[in-house]
């Protein structure tokens, strides 16, 4: 009985450590987005859409991010992808953190091109660092990444083609709604992969070693009689 209590306590402690890692990663992700927005030389593809939608219907950028995230999450679920706690929190917390950071006005707004480039690149590396923490928590991919995976599976097209198509549509829709397109949009589209790859390499982070936990497995972890076996299956590689 005592051993069971100790084991359960260890499982819960490890679970909440991963949860804090997830939330910290999402905060960094939102912080990176604010850097790219305040660079003021053109928004990243999804931010073009979020800002355009926010302007059109009169809501905050964070609320627009949450709204789009929920819609994409539903579509992804209908396409057969499984969601995790990370997917749900990604939908909500990035938007909440975005509005909080923007509301505090703690990140300077660029007033020249060179400073804008520095802010943009810094923001992309902060996003990459946030991705390291967020993905490493193993709580599931975000809704936009899940949509990319779902479309790749359904269409059998290369993942790069599916991602590129999704982001192109987001840019075009956002531009039509009034989102800012500029050199920063192009830089973001072509360098985010390099920033993520470089960050992951420096931190020796292998995304293929992560076994993401779905909502169903999270439920079983806490309520199944076979907690030890499920815990071992869901324990991510530590980095």
Write the layout of secondary structure elements.
Elements: H1 2-38, H2 45-57, H3 61-78, H4 85-104, H5 113-136, H6 143-155, H7 159-176, H8 183-202, H9 215-223, H10 227-234
Helix pairs in contact: 1-4, 1-5, 2-3, 2-7, 3-4, 3-6, 5-8, 6-7, 9-10
What does the model show?
The radius of gyration is 19 Å and the shape is globular. The model is unreliable at 228-232 (pLDDT under 50). Helices cover 75% and strands 0% of the residues. It has one domain (31-234). It has 239 residues and is an all-alpha fold. The longest helix has 37 residues, at 2-38.
Secondary-structure-derived class: mainly alpha
Q: What summary fits the major beta sheet? A: none
Gap between N and C termini:
32 Å
**Number of discrete helical segments:** 10
Beta percentage is under 5%
How many beta-strand segments? 0
Overall domain count: 1
The run of helices and strands is HHHHHHHHHH
- Helical content class: over 70%
Describe this structure in a few short sentences:
By secondary structure, the chain is mainly alpha-helical. It contains ten helices and no strands.
Based on the model shown, name its key terms.
239 residues; mainly alpha
